[in-house]
């Protein structure tokens, strides 16, 4: 999973473009991805893996990819955790890919104004969605209906592994 976490001044268009860029990069490596609105400022690009790789291998892969993207486009990305060093850029958070790390789960409410909810979406929806905090707890009936929809059937499921790279 890559957590695309924008600096405070960046708009959602930058995050959207970054999500599609990560989709293309991971697709070029043969990995199917799924987007998820975080209910915060960013987007998660998720490439689910079948069990096989150990935590250090997964973190190493994610770290190397994040570093490569940050080095190839330093005006838009950073892989450095320090908020002071990510001014005007998107932090590619690869640190969620290690044992004991946490990440927001789909349909979890965030403790933020408006009670936004993290929500899986399709890549087609990513083209037009207005914000990573688009859904909120008041949308529970819609979110429940979406979860059972044909569009999200199979979301987050893919038979793929790092050993195939």
Shape: globular
Question: Structural class from helices and strands?
Answer: alpha+beta
Into which percent range does the helicity of residues fall? Answer: 25-40%
Question: Proportion of β residues?
Answer: 5-15%
Order of strands across the main sheet: 4-5-1-3-2-6
Instruction: Please tally the helical runs, counting DSSP H or I stretches of 4 or more residues.
Output: 4
Mean pLDDT: 95
Q: How many strands appear in the DSSP assignment? A: 6
Could you give a short account of the major beta sheet?
6 strands, mixed
* Unreliable residue runs: none
Helix-strand pattern: EHEEHEEEHH
How are the secondary structure elements laid out?
Elements: E1 2-6, H1 12-28, E2 34-37, E3 43-46, H2 55-72, E4 77-78, E5 90-93, E6 119-120, H3 123-126, H4 140-147
Parallel strand pairs: 4-5
Antiparallel strand pairs: 1-3, 1-5, 2-3, 2-6
Short description:
This protein has helices spanning 12-28, 55-72, 123-126, 140-147; strands at residues 2-6, 34-37, 43-46, 77-78, 90-93, 119-120. It is an alpha+beta fold and 165 residues long.
Structural overview:
- Helix content is 28%, strand content 13%.
- It is of the alpha+beta class.
- It starts with a strand and ends in an 18-residue tail after the last helix.
- The mean pLDDT is 95.
Q: Which terms summarize this structure?
A:
alpha+beta; 6 strands; globular; 13% strand; 4 helices; 6-stranded mixed beta sheet; 165 residues
């Amino acid at each position: 999973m890559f957590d695309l976490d924008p600096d405070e001044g960046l708009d959602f268009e930058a995050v959207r473009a970054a999500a599609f860029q990560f989709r293309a990069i991971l697709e070029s490596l043969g990995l199917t991805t799924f987007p998820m609105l975080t209910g915060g400022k960013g987007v998660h690009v998720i490439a689910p893996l079948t069990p096989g790789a150990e935590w250090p291998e997964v973190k190493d892969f994610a770290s190397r990819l994040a570093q490569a993207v940050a080095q190839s486009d330093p005006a838009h990305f950073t892989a450095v955790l320090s908020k002071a060093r990510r001014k005007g850029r998107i932090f590619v958070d690869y640190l969620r890919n290690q044992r004991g790390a946490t990440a927001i789960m789909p349909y979890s409410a965030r403790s933020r104004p408006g009670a936004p909810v993290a929500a899986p979406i399709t890549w087609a929806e990513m083209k037009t969605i207005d914000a990573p905090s688009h859904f909120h707890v008041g949308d529970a009936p819609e979110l429940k209906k979406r979860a059972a929809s044909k569009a999200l059937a199979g979301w987050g499921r893919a038979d793929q592994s790092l050993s195939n790279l």
